[in-house]
Amino acid sequence: MKKIQLPNGMSIADLNLLKKKHGKLIIVTVEATESVDYEEKDGELFIKPQVKNLKKRNVSAIFKQADKELIAEVTRRSQKDEMAGAKLFYNGCKLSIDKEIDEEASLYIAVLKSLIDKFNEKKGNSLIL
């Protein structure tokens, strides 16, 4: 079984309440690497020797499914500014996140990409009769 990582401070009871209120949920987890100190030596940069292993941690976010109204507004906004549309989609679906996601651009983009990929995952077939 694959372990599900919830955002910091969130309990299973909290998750169950969100699921009951919003229906299907999307949980996104991305890996974050801690920043390291570096030093310059002979015009080149090196990771400081005391950094043996880079600390990695996972951060998580929980999103609800987008409704038709949100999708329509995201579509309208994206025609003028794709990033504004993506931000509206992210904020309109966001239920609970690890705070680092909103504080660090690279984590925000990784979570946003994963959310959009999951949303676009469902594909249908159509026929013209």
Quick structural gist:
The protein has one domain: 2-Layer Sandwich (rbstp2171). It has 5 helices and 5 strands, in the order αββββααβαα.
Order of helices and strands: HEEEEHHEHH
Mean pLDDT: 85
Strand order of the largest sheet: 1-4-5
Q: Would you give the CATH topology?
A: rbstp2171
The class by helix and strand makeup works out as alpha+beta
Question: What oligomeric state do these chains adopt?
Answer: single chain
> Could you give a short account of the major beta sheet?
3 strands, antiparallel
What portion of residues is helical? 40-55%
Q: Specify the number of helices.
A: 5
Percentage of residues in DSSP E strands: 15-25%
Low-confidence stretches: none
Principal-axes shape call: globular
Tell me the number of strands. 5
The domain count comes to: 1
Q: Please state the second-level CATH architecture.
A: 2-Layer Sandwich
Give the termini distance in whole angstroms: 44 Å
Q: What's the alpha carbon Rg, rounded to whole Å?
A: 19 Å
Mind telling me the CATH class? Alpha Beta
Give structural attributes.
single chain; 129 residues; alpha+beta; rbstp2171; 3-stranded antiparallel sheet; two-stranded antiparallel ribbon; 5 helices; globular
